[in-house]
Design a protein that fits this description.
With about 120 residues, this protein is mainly alpha-helical. The protein has helices at about 10-15, 20-50, 50-70, 70-85, 95-115. It has a single domain (about 5-110), classed as Four Helix Bundle (Hemerythrin (Met), subunit A), CATH 1.20.120.160. The protein has five helices and no strands. It is elongated and about 40 Å long.
Length: about 120
């Protein structure tokens, strides 16, 4: 999957997912900004520990949370990562982690810019 085909952030997609509920989106954006770095750390630790169940759980969570707030590139990267975990491609995961980290930072920057 080519993550570059998706925007870093698509607010309209997020609002569409949430039936236009602006207040809910604002709440979820704050949660995302709080949780994204923690999720990335959990994923890194899961890979270090060889815990593919945890890696699957966290990457799935990242995918869902990213897509919900309209961080579509991160959502796509997390989906690709999750699929690699689920199909037993553990050897590829360390090479995929930097892109996931980069997309997490890009999504956080895009969402943080809204708060200024």
């Amino acid at each position: 999957m080519n993550e570059d085909a998706f925007p870093v952030r698509d607010r309209q997609a997020a609002l569409s997912r949430l039936a236009g509920r602006e207040a809910l989106l604002a709440k979820l954006e704050k949660s995302f900004l709080r949780d994204a770095p923690v999720n990335l750390e959990r994923l890194e630790k899961a890979l270090e520990d060889g815990d593919m169940d945890e890696a699957a759980l966290v990457s799935h969570k990242m995918k869902g949370e990213a897509n919900t707030v309209g961080a579509l590139r991160l959502g796509a990267a997390a989906k690709t990562f999750h699929e690699a975990v689920k199909t037993g491609k553990a050897g590829a995961l360390p090479d995929m982690l930097p892109l996931l980290a980069e997309e997490t930072r890009a999504a956080m920057n895009a969402l943080s810019a809204l708060e200024r």
